[in-house]
From TrEMBL:
Span of domain Glycosyl hydrolase family 31 C-terminal: 583-668
UniProt-recorded name of the protein: alpha-D-xyloside xylohydrolase
Reaction(s) catalysed by this chain's protein: Hydrolysis of terminal, non-reducing alpha-D-xylose residues with release of alpha-D-xylose
Superkingdom of this protein's organism: Bacteria
Molecular functions per Gene Ontology: alpha-D-xyloside xylohydrolase; carbohydrate binding
InterPro entries documented for this protein: Alpha-glycosidase_related (IPR050985), Gal_mutarotase_sf_dom (IPR011013), GH (IPR017853), Glyco_hydro_31_C (IPR048395), Glyco_hydro_31_N_dom (IPR025887), Glyco_hydro_31_TIM (IPR000322), Glyco_hydro_b (IPR013780)
Keywords, ordered alphabetically: Glycosidase, Hydrolase
UniProt record, GO biological process: carbohydrate metabolic process
Annotated ranges, domain Glycoside hydrolase family 31 TIM barrel: 260-573
Pfam family, one: Gal_mutarotas_2
Organism: Fontibacillus phaseoli
Keyword Magnesium found: no
């Protein structure tokens, strides 16, 4: 939201008050409080008829500093508020000197200059990150007498801003106006399903604005050297989040707002859905599943979209008996084929549903200001909205889901949650404007928690479309309604990378696009991309997404990459377990892994899958891949070709290939099962070693399907000697020296030569090996 008219003027009718000088600084062992006058005080009379801003600096945890700007403090705050995980024992150092007042938490400090007008600086380990200066913070009164508080933080030369949720606009947010307001706008506009008031800077810090209502950002737009953010009202609170690198910043941010849960291992397999408006019954469903079996394409999850329930009854959580006369028997038959089951839901209750009367009678639905049930006809005729601020309504809603779980449903696609009205009344008195974005958090939390309660920790997941800050605790999220075009495939990836830099670790998308129907070419290229994502789902709108409807080769391509993903599960699941501890996403923007490489700062058509695999999807019908490799000797995991990095590469690939490049010095855990994502990863595992340099160490940690570490292997190279150590499970495993044709000796194992390199079958019980190259 813009308040100024160029650099010199404010917009007509706008009154801007900004701090001109610091009048006093109060300090305590935990806090700095700065009183700033919005007028230069020369004589006593100047203290009259002027606005003041109070700025409080505190710290909720090491390396994080909270900043609260207050104009008028008399208004009683109304929820909701983001949940924060505060370290009650955080050690803070406060100094209140003659010239400078400082608050330090961990390695992060804020310095307030007491005699230089308004001048503050945020410093991490001696390096200035950003700051707030002349005319930066301010209070605005608009022509309609509404008020806003803003802050402007400095942008440095060459500084780039990322994140702010799952945004499909350009990956680097500089130059953009971004209003955080959850909307159902597809992937082709500036609107977003997942608005997160957190951004990340390549200068090595993050900023979290602690407001669930609409936050308006001007990122190098209104003032090209600043990031401005503003909220309505009389107060503004934000956090500066530091760290030694971008990964540590994400770690600290997700410590504050919540770490992601670990999705169940089965959820990483291939998902197939009925699609949205297609006609289907049990016979149709079985034809899809049997067709996959006949073509030997491993299928792991079947999803029933909206029309598993009767039209105009969404959501009543009851199978449409006209289409599915024996739902329990059907689910039993599907699960006997080794499938997990997902069903579509949302939080809207249609007037035709029997639940509408239940909800109305018991006060479980959001109300109008007159006390009636709020209703409209968008999506479902006369629909109401579940009031998740009412604990009884949450239990009521969860009980409906428990009945489905008891039938054999394993997870729920929590669709929608963006179309939330602001002229309503909530059970707990929450501010309806703040609830617009926050509603989805309560919705997904309610569904996730009933799954976790019934299935256990690490066995719960949702498939969610909408989210806000903290929603990363309830994975998985998918990218919404994309189109069947290469442009939409690219914008989908941009959205996923932005979400990953906003604290979300697990993400998926509709393979082949949701709207329209992909060409066979696009379907096959998107299949490779989709199966090299954390989660992989075939889904569409008006047509089925089974591969044989595209062409015969599509089945072969889908089979190829589904099996590849299953073999990569030990690596992917280990990466996922790491994500639950660190908040670092499974699919990572290049800047996250290579913060010192300037070429990686703007890349949005490739990504790192974990810390060791680079994926460059192909976005054209010519099969041309153009991608950037950082320094070092990179190996194509599929072909074994070695490519020298530090440059752009252009190649042509058939449908069974793409740039899947292994970072030099990596040890990749490859499993022995290509049919399922959930198996004993440590049993028969092959650890592939790539381009280990002299004096370097590579390691791999293998977990079981519950996320418990089972095997740790390290390889160190000194000259032509490889020293290998293993700790953990005593199961058969082997070491594959990729690109090495032969070895002189292997003490502790048996060496054999192969197309990929030398394979060392480790002797049973051996914990240390020595290999001479």
């Amino acid at each position: 939201m813009k308040f100024t008219d160029g650099y010199w003027h404010v917009r007509p009718g706008v009154t801007l008050n900004y701090p001109v000088e610091v009048r006093s600084v109060r300090s305590s062992p935990e806090q700095l409080t700065v009183l700033a006058s919005c007028k230069k005080i020369i004589k006593r009379g100047d203290t009259l008829n002027t606005a003041i801003l109070t700025v409080n600096y505190t710290s909720p945890m090491p390396d994080v500093i909270a900043v609260e700007l207050v104009h008028h403090s008399g208004k009683l705050p109304k929820g909701p508020v983001f949940e924060k995980h505060v370290d009650e024992g955080v050690q803070v150092s406060v100094e209140n000197g003659e010239e400078i007042a400082t608050l330090t938490s961990g390695k992060l400090s804020v310095q307030v200059n007491k005699n230089e007008g308004w001048s503050t600086h945020f410093i991490y380990n001696g390096k200035r990150l950003t700051g707030s200066g002349y005319k930066s913070p301010g209070h605005m009164k608009m022509p309609d007498q509404s008020t806003f508080i803003r802050e402007q933080l400095d942008l440095g030369v060459g500084e780039y801003i990322y994140g702010l949720g799952e945004r499909f606009t350009p990956f680097v947010k500089n130059g953009q106006v971004v209003d955080l307001w959850n909307e159902d706008g597809g992937t082709c506009s500036e609107q977003a399903y997942k608005n997160v008031p957190f951004y990340l800077s390549n200068y090595g810090y993050g900023v979290f604005v602690d407001h669930p209502e609409r936050v308006s950002y001007e990122v190098a737009s209104e003032v090209v050297s600043k990031v401005q953010f503003s909220v309505p009202g009389e107060t503004l609170k934000y956090y500066i989040i530091g760290g030694s690198n971008l990964k540590e910043v994400l770690n600290n941010y997700t410590k504050l707002t919540g770490k992601p849960a670990l999705p169940p291992a089965w959820s990483y397999g291939l998902w197939l859905t009925t699609s949205f408006t297609t006609s289907y019954d049990e016979g149709t469903v079985n034809s899809f599943i049997d067709g996959m079996i006949e073509r030997e394409i491993p299928l792991h999850v079947f999803h029933f979209d909206c029309f598993w329930m009767k039209e105009f009854h969404w959501c009543d959580f009851q199978w449409d008996k006209d289409v599915f006369p024996d739902p329990q028997g059907m689910l039993n038959r599907l699960k006997s084929k080794g499938l997990n089951i997902s069903v579509w839901i949302n939080s809207y209750i249609a007037q035709q549903s029997y639940l509408f009367d239940e909800g109305k009678e018991n006060g479980y639905l959001v109300k109008t200001k007159d006390g009636d049930v709020w209703q409209w006809d968008r999506w479902q005729g006369g629909m109401g909205l579940v009031d998740f601020t009412n604990p009884a309504a949450v239990r009521w809603y969860q009980d409906k889901l428990r009945a489905l779980i008891d039938m054999g449903v394993d997870c729920f696609k929590t669709d929608f949650g963006e179309r939330i009205p602001t002229d309503v009344v909530y059970f707990d008195g929450s501010d309806p404007v703040k609830m617009h974005n926050y509603y989805t958090h309560l919705y997904n939390k309610a569904v996730f928690e009933v799954l976790e309660e019934t299935k256990g920790k690490n066995e719960a997941m949702v498939f969610a479309r909408s989210a806000t800050a903290g929603g990363q605790q309830f994975p998985v999220h998918w990218g919404g309604d994309c189109s069947a075009t290469y442009n939409s495939m690219a914008e989908t990836l941009r959205g996923g990378l932005s979400l990953g830099l906003s604290g979300f670790s697990f993400w998926s998308h509709d393979i082949g696009g949701f709207e329209s129907t992909a060409t066979p070419d696009l379907y096959k290229r998107w299949s490779a991309f989709g199966l090299l994502s954390s989660h992989s789902r075939l889904h569409g709108s008006q047509s089925y997404r089974v591969p044989w409807l595209f062409d015969d080769e599509a089945s072969d391509v889908l089979r190829h990459f589904t099996k590849l993903k299953s073999t990569l599960m030990p690596y992917l699941y280990g990466t996922s377990v790491e994500a639950t501890r660190t908040g670092v996403p499974v699919m990572r923007a290049m800047v996250l892994e290579f913060p010192g490489d300037a070429a990686c700062e703007t890349l949005d058509r490739q990504y790192m899958l974990g810390d060791s695999l680079l994926v460059a999807p192909i976005f054209n019908d010519e099969g041309t891949a153009k991608y950037y490799l950082p320094e070092g000797r990179w190996t194509n995991f599929l072909s074994g070709n070695v490519v020298e990095g530090g440059r752009w590469v252009q190649e042509r690939h058939d449908y069974f290939s793409l740039p899947l490049m292994v970072r030099p010095g990596s040890l990749i855990a490859v499993g022995a099962n290509d049919l399922r994502p959930d198996y004993d990863y440590a049993d028969g595992i092959a650890l592939h070693l790539f381009e280990l340099g002299d004096g370097e160490t590579a390691s791999a940690s293998i977990c079981d399907v519950s996320g418990v570490h089972e095997l740790e292997v390290k390889v160190t190279r000194q000259g032509r000697t490889l020293t290998v150590t293993a700790e953990g499970a005593d199961k058969p495993w082997e070491l594959v020296l990729r690109g090495i044709a032969n070895v002189a000796s292997a003490d502790g194992g048996t060496a054999s030569e192969g197309d990929l390199g030398v394979t060392i079958a480790v002797d049973r019980g051996v914990r240390a090996l020595s290999i001479e190259l």
